[in-house]
Amino acid sequence: MLKRRFIVLLAGFVPLLSHAIDDKVVLGTAQDVSITAGDVRRELSLVPDAVIRRVLTDPQQHLALIDGMIRLELYAREAEALGVAADPKVQARIEKSRKQILAEVVREHVARSTEPPDFTELAREEYLLRKAEFVVPEQVRARHILLRFEGDAQKAEAIEKLRQIGERVRQGDSFEALAIAHSQDPGSAPEGGDLGLFGRGKMVEPFERAAFALRSPGELSDIVETRFGLHLIQLVERVERRERGFDEVKGPIIARIDADYRKKILESWDREMSEKASSDVDLEMLRKFFAQELERLK
């Protein structure tokens, strides 16, 4: 019911999408609970940046968000109606949660409030020191047709079949279509034998050696034997090894340096707050207090 009401309401908003929807506009209702655009905007402000775009573009998540907000409101109202919200333990939990949220917020504020220096030159130094880490290795994209065999007779038949397939490809037949029709690799056969891009060390050695020996797109390998069977390989694409330039990688480097910088600021602030939190404790009274609390549990 909640989802149907939400869909009907959204359908009524279509003509308004070119204008900002007012905070008071109702997006979903259940019993006497109404969820407004303002309520949803506040809820969205709590969604992490990493997932907000997915939430905003997924209609199923739109429905789930409204449904969850309504349920939460109904639960809270029920807690008030039943009197459990006034329980001292519940109030203690609410107050502790409030302080924990404030502590988290103020730490985030401290970490982000300081204007950082320009880290470009520091990032450049790090790039030069770690330049070997920013190399894109040589890769190839290949297709293959796999035929399995048991015994010499089946092996000979498979070799002859792959030889004939190779001839058909050289005469203009589609490697992809032949892979779909004949390859016994269940993972790649439906994709026309396509294995995607891969680097060295990702395939068994005889297969890798043959694939990387191919130079031009469309070139076929000789028949290759591995522990999986016999393969005919076609090169699709070759990506040569290259070094990524500083401008290409400086963003992530600067982001990491900035994160370390803010972490140190926060650690320093935490130490200052810990010093402020140091207090004089009446150890004898503290011992008696906890002894009494323990006695109350018996």
UniProtKB/TrEMBL annotation:
Signal recorded as keyword: yes
GO molecular function: isomerase activity
Reactions the enzyme catalyzes: [protein]-peptidylproline (omega=180) = [protein]-peptidylproline (omega=0)
Gene3D superfamilies associated with the record: 3.10.50.40
Signal peptide per UniProt: 1-20
Domain PpiC: 137-237
Family: Belongs to the PpiC/parvulin rotamase family.
Protein name per its UniProtKB record: peptidylprolyl isomerase
Organism: Thauera sedimentorum
Lineage, highest ranks first: Bacteria, Pseudomonadati, Pseudomonadota, Betaproteobacteria, Rhodocyclales
